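Same chain as my last thread, 590 residues:
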Amino acid sequence: MLGKIIEVNENDVIIKLEVEIEKLQSLSNLLVVMQDENVNYVGEITRVNQECVTVNLLGELDDEKFVFGVMKKPSFNAVVKLISKDKVKNLISFQSDKENEKLYIGKSTIYDGVDVNVNINDFMSNHFAILGSTGSGKSCGVARIIQNLYEKEQQIPYRSNLFIFDAYGEYHSAFSQLHEKVPEINFKAYTTNFEDTNSEILRIPLWLLGTDDIALLLGASKHTQIPIIEKALKLVSVFAKEENEVLKTKNDIIARALIDIISSGNSSAQIRDQIFSVLSYYNTSELNLNTVVEQTGYSRPLNKCFNLDATGKIRDIELIMNFFESYLADGYELNLPDGTFRYTLNDLKDAFDFALISEGVLKSDKIFDEANILKVRLYALANGKESEYFNYPTFITKNEYIKKLITTREGRKAQIVNFNINYIDDRLAKTITKIYSKLLFDFAKELPNKGSFPCHIILEEAHRYVQNDNDIFLIGYNIFERIAKEGRKYGVMLGFISQRPSEISETAISQCSNFLIFKMLHPKDVEYIREMLPNITNEIIERLRILQPGNCIAFGAAFKIPVLIRMDMPNPSPTSSSCDLVNTWFVEKK
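reply #2:
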């Protein structure tokens, strides 16, 4: 027996020692059991002096099954014992003989020689967060866990799908050699670096994006901008197709815009100039400035019908109006693209220009200014080097694209797909991660067999992307928050890797079920963890400031109790080390 209970506080028990402390190993952080009638209370020693120890109550043991939390407190008659190493293994590590059920995380820092394993379902079937300050070992921890998952001897997770959004391009070195160790496992890398010949350039088929995606891509901020985007997408369904497929529809769209110009109330000279401007760029083989307008007794091209009379009015305005009205068609409806045809940024740019005209923005300076912001951004994107990321060379369906994402150049199944987004600015990187996350979530949600395509979206530097953005105001949801709340039922899980958890969306991080927290120093982040995460004690919070690199506190659904873990170094390691100034700065004197 360790000693006698002499004091019971809110969540602490003070025990007077009845053993010679000098003959024992260090008692700090050891687990004890307090046997009291029909209840076995489990606690952790948090403070030690020559006479007493303080035990923080963690939970109860019921038929060797641990239940976190206590309903009552132990009595003064409870028998207090240290838990043996054999029984400790059952508390801090998942025990199973089946290799495909357990995942090795690391070693206990308190109990020498005790490995910490978790049930794969309990850990990987939930959202998780790996948090810690710079240099605390987060990237190495992520790399080691993934290597442990795939470097199994008997069974391998062949059908798994890990999509890593790599903020610094760190993980290529950690996973690119996995195929040499386990031939069935393959790594595929996409990059935003046009000079990188070892990876495929990241390219997204533009026609797989919806209104919400385009709104985020163009940085829309007002509800009045959404109808313009929707109209542009509906028009691109016409403007991007061969004219013989959509001739009547295209004629109708152009004619209606021209009729609106005539009815705008502007001066005749303005009306003429606007019509000439529209038809110079938007025309068909049947409706253009050279189209012949038939009159009684003679005919002439359309561009010769805009002469002004002595009062400055267009002399043949009624003739022109009737001519345009003859191209109006009935019985068709413009629809948003359904992913069944290819279009480019230039097609979208043309459709956007025409949407501005057809929506009557020329009549409203305010609407024009708000829409013009999007137009400028679309032009900048279409004419800049970033356009290559949306320049997919051939038509491909959503299902085919997802399949291609997880297929190597040699035609093998890729289990780990890494997106190196280090070479684009934060705004575009955030948008691309949202676009891919929505694409994967929608794909999984639309499958007839729910959960048949389990995938993990792992976000390095998650605080850059998973934020309290304007998305909910603009489009009604934030994709990361939606996945956090709904993703598990469809097999889509999130992994947040971050050094600034206080900047991550509260809704998203609150849905995480497992946490690995490395050394954390920033007071705001430490306090955020204390407030946001359930079942975290003051003792855990205090340890966060003194953890050594590579050590973490793990707790959540996959851990019966909070566990201090020392993680093995990954082999090979990610390229996450700091700059070596000594070898960079100094040279031998000549």
